Amino acid sequence: MAAIASHVPHQSPPPTSMEPSNITDKYSCVKLLAESSNLIKSIPSHFTLTNDPRGTNPDSLPIIDFSLLLSANHDQRSTVLHDLGKACEEWGFFLVNHGIPETLLKAIIDASSEYFELPEEEKRQYETKCPSDPIKSGNSSLINTANHRVHLWRDFVKDILLEFSERTRSMARKLLHGIAEILELEQGYIDEALELDSSFQMFAANSYPPCPQPDQAIGIPPHTDPGLFTFLIDNGVSGLQIEHDGQWLNPNSPKNSILVHAADHVEIFSNGRIKSVKHRAVVNSERERISIVMSNGPFWETVVRPAAPLVLKDGRALYHPMKYMEFMDWLLTKSRLNGNTLLEHLLIQEDQSAN
Ligand SMILES: O=C(O)CCC(=O)C(=O)O
Ligand SMILES: [Fe+2]
């Protein structure tokens, strides 16, 4: 059995609607397909999504020293807050000195890797039937514009890992307190508005097996994440790309760092001051990539809206309010490859707000 806990700490149940049915054909597991692709050399048409997996290498992605955020030294703290604000407005950052032991990060990657090595029959018992299942495993797919189902070049397993979850929860809350300070909100405002005592986290481990035609497949297409902050680590094989000024960048992670990016609900809460980071996962023909994603959201029942003091300052709210659970439910059931994202959908046009 894979060393992945099934315990769900703190949280109430997530949304309950059904996910579109999974693939039931011979290659429901991408890993199996990748192994057989020694023989096939090209990928089946239902995985085909032509894309250019190349990205450019940025000089550096901002690096934020988490320990300085907790510093009692006023100057140090205001410098790091300034850097944090700037990084969140632009493209995300690497968090270093975050206090999560390297051994724990490695254990999570190893456990996920072990899980993906399990026999197909064993993984099948976790195949996703409903978003509220505490553990989900399988391959995911989206519908393209021609209404054909396109399968993604990854397997995933979702679960909540207790220790990682507790540490990242506390880290996310401290980052949010930093954001609240940058936004000049009163102490306690963000905790109350987003009901952070009951914040909802989702853990996902992704496996992207080697792909014989990386320019004909995609791991995860361009998207922004739901939630407040996403934390991401991987097994050292690159594949995550971040969009910046219309270009795809390959971030190079410093040792034992965690990549953090702002997600949709920070953009909504900040009334657009902070931008949800667009990213994608590309695949390669040589090595399996494992990534670990921890999504940190508000309480699942919270109606997320732009913070009232910011709306007052800006003269209007830029986004419609929506319950977090409904947002997640929508994403899990109606996700499309093209067309507006849900965040774009919630954007209030200037002429609309005047009415
Ligand atoms: O695997 C990655 O690097 C990206 C994963 C991701 O974007 C997601 O799970 O939302
Ligand atoms: Fe993502």
TrEMBL record:
<dbReference type="Pfam" id="PF03171">
    <property type="entry name" value="2OG-FeII_Oxy"/>
</dbReference>
<dbReference type="InterPro" id="IPR044861">
    <property type="entry name" value="IPNS-like_FE2OG_OXY"/>
</dbReference>
<comment type="similarity">
    <text>Belongs to the iron/ascorbate-dependent oxidoreductase family.</text>
</comment>
<feature type="domain" description="Fe2OG dioxygenase">
    <location>
        <begin position="198"/>
        <end position="303"/>
    </location>
</feature>
<dbReference type="InterPro" id="IPR027443">
    <property type="entry name" value="IPNS-like_sf"/>
</dbReference>
<protein>
    <recommendedName>
        <fullName>Fe2OG dioxygenase domain-containing protein</fullName>
    </recommendedName>
</protein>
<dbReference type="InterPro" id="IPR050295">
    <property type="entry name" value="Plant_2OG-oxidoreductases"/>
</dbReference>
<keyword id="KW-0408">Iron</keyword>
<dbReference type="InterPro" id="IPR026992">
    <property type="entry name" value="DIOX_N"/>
</dbReference>
<dbReference type="InterPro" id="IPR005123">
    <property type="entry name" value="Oxoglu/Fe-dep_dioxygenase_dom"/>
</dbReference>
<dbReference type="Pfam" id="PF14226">
    <property type="entry name" value="DIOX_N"/>
</dbReference>
<keyword id="KW-0560">Oxidoreductase</keyword>
<keyword id="KW-0479">Metal-binding</keyword>
<feature type="region of interest" description="Disordered">
    <location>
        <begin position="1"/>
        <end position="22"/>
    </location>
</feature>
